[in-house]
Amino acid sequence: MADHPLPSSRVADVRSSTLVGVLIGIAIMAAVDEIVFHQLLAWHHFYDRSTPSVALLSDGLLHAAEVIALVGGFFWFADLRRRGALSSRLAWGGFLLGAGGFQLFDGLVDHKVLRLHQIRYGVHLVPYDVVWNVAGAVLLLAGVAVLWSARSRRLGGGPR
Amino acid sequence: MTVAVPPAMVAVPLAHAGHGAGGPTWLPLFPVALLAGGYLLAAVSDPRGWDHRRTAAWLVGCALLAVAVGPLAQAPGDPRGHMAQHLLLGMLAPLGLVLGAPVTLLLHVAPAPVRRLVGRLLRARPLHLLAHPVTAALLTTGGLALVLLTPLYAAAERQPVLHHAVHLHYLAAGYLFAWSLAGPDPAPRRPGLAVRVGALLVAAAGHAVLSKYLYAQAETLPPGLTDRDPEAFRSAAQLMYYGGDVAELLLAVALFATWYHRPHPRSSALIKKFASAKDGSLTETS
């Protein structure tokens, strides 16, 4: 390790820094989805008559996991920071990757493939779906770009 | 449970007759006052000095208990009042009490024979089984499901003794669960972080699913009630859902805080050693 040129005097934990970003990104996006679309806009309903019990179960698990991921993610983040093992670039890249990935997954798998629920009811859906999924894809790609540049910086700032 | 029967309730004497025949209204407050007073006495007489934050947590727990058994018990027929009571008794008050670390305080101030007894009790195998996060999750969320999905709820409405027993169960199971996950009190053989997070996840998900199910089935659940107001049960179910979220959030914070403050993070020590060695080499080369 000693002959590796490191970007700073700290020893950043690459894997943990990225993963903690992904975890917080997923949790934040899930929380935004829940708070903004379920509660503030009330586009989704608290409960649909048509909601099958499997969806009820998966919804409950997802909801519980979101709170735990958010709290656990921030404690993990604080722990990495305290140990000086955090690379904030990698964490930001992971955050964007996680947020965009979750939104895209929600938009494609939950809304379209599994048809658990839709973004909004009683409206023409296509523009909503396009905005939702494009926004997710943009976040995802931004995350990939940030991670890419952070990684190539770490590898000695070589060819790029 | 109470003698105070609002005029509206007199119109339906059948369902709430049990409440009217109960003992004095403020009687349940005495044990709460005893808990708070006993703890304060012990904390003051602790020779090593007792952390004020622990005292504050315990007193908050006691205050929540007092709200649950005092003012909230005044409206016996309202499902929303019931639900608030259950949230306080089974989820929020236990967390405050657990964070007060009463067993540690007892070990500080009690005479040697009592300390030995507590130590033996803490090493007992049945206790390890009972205090396992999975058992505790089953007891708290499973117990709640048992009450709300079976005629037990209706029976407890009629019989004050059963009513009190159900409330005691909520409190005991909630305390056990919070202790098994995040209690500062000694807990031999407490499982690792993954098991505890998993138990919290399952319990919280079960709670969320149960409350949505109750919301959906408000016309028929809880079964066996003679008069019901589905709208009130629906808003009680929503209160259960969001109240459960708050409790889950607080429990998760307490749980991860114990991890964050773990005694000797091995990797942290390693990193420090490594970092200082590297600093040394840097000063050498530059």
Automatic annotation (TrEMBL), chain A:
Question: Does this entry carry the keyword Ribonucleoprotein?
Answer: no
Q: Which keywords, in A-to-Z order, does the entry hold?
A: Membrane, Transmembrane, Transmembrane helix
**Pfam families for this protein:** DUF2243
Span-the-membrane segments of this chain are 20-41, 61-78, 90-110, 130-150
Q: Out of the domains of life, which is the source? A: Bacteria
Name of this protein: DUF2243 domain-containing protein
| Organism in which the protein naturally occurs | Micromonospora inaquosa
